[in-house]
Amino acid sequence: GQSLEQPSEVTAVEGAIVQINCTYQTSGFYGLSWYQQHDGGAPTFLSYNGLDGLEETGRFSSFLSRSDSYGYLLLQELQMKDSASYFCAVRDGPSGTYKYIFGTGTRLKVLA
Amino acid sequence: GAVVSQHPSRVICKSGTSVKIECRSLDFQATTMFWYRQFPKQSLMLMATSNEGSKATYEQGVEKDKFLINHASLTLSTLTVTSAHPEDSSFYICSARRGGALGTGELFFGEGSRLTVL
After folding, report:
1. Higher pLDDT, residue A77 or B30
2. Number of A:B CB contacts under 8 A?
């Protein structure tokens, strides 16, 4: 089966740095994405890694190691508004046959 | 950015009735849309992949006769929950990827529809 595992919950204080890990096992791999979802809202796209290495987008960075089937999302200078659920997602096929599988999700609590 | 609109945002219905949820891509054409179901504090579970002009592809364990998906145009996909029962109560979310953005992996999500079956 296909699976993407994440820690269920992470707590950190404002201004800190937090890392959310994602290990995946999928039938195919065409990139790892990260999404943020506030309670009651829809997921919003944060970052994408198609190749190994680090991608930086403002306070958020994402890393991928395809050989380890592993990636992480790094959030810097945490703010209260960052309290939300974070999901990694894998696209498992090429154009025309793909679908997106989501990870188990990580609830981030940012404390004042 | 691209916008995906979903309607209704909330619906309450009686057991045994059918409910239709619409998902529209407002500023781009979406040949493929995805329907997810989400239980409280849980992940997004892919229900089916909706393809414009053809039959939807359902995930294992999802009843295609219960969750009818129609993708009649490049901007509209609908999910109909037929003969709804309380166990169908959930948050349903659609998503689409803008054509040409394959490299970014970005999915655009609708606002979601919270279904409550009494």
Report:
1. A77
2. 54
Among candidates A62, A85, A103, which has minimal Cα distance to B46? A103
Per-residue pLDDT of chain B (118 residues; tens, 9 = 90+): 668 999 999 999 999 999 999 999 998 888 889 999 999 989 999 999 998 888 899 999 999 999 999 998 889 999 999 999 999 999 999 999 876 655 566 899 999 999 999 9
CB atoms under 10 Å from CB of A33, counted, come to 25
Q: What is the distance in angstroms between the Cα of B68 and the nearest Cα belonging to chain A? A: 18
Burial status of residue A70 (CB atoms within 10 A of its CB: 0-12, 13-18, 19 or more):
middle
Taking only the tens place, the pLDDT of each residue in B63-84 is 999 999 999 888 999 999 999 9
Residue with tokens 């994408």: A48
* Strand boundaries in B1-118, DSSP class E: 4-7, 10-13, 19-25, 32-38, 44-51, 57-58, 67-73, 76-81, 90-96, 108-109, 113-117
Rounded to the nearest angstrom, the minimum Cα separation between B17 and chain A is: 25
Point out the residue among B57, B95, B104 whose CB comes nearest to the CB of A48: B104
Query: A96: burial class by Cβ within 10 Å (0-12, 13-18, 19+)?
Result: exposed
C-alpha distance from residue A87 to each of A21, A45, A47, B27, B116 (Å): 10, 10, 11, 25, 25
Question: Which residue numbers of B have CB closer than 8 Å to A's CBs?
Answer: 34, 36, 41-46, 49, 57, 93, 95, 102-112
pLDDT at A109: 97
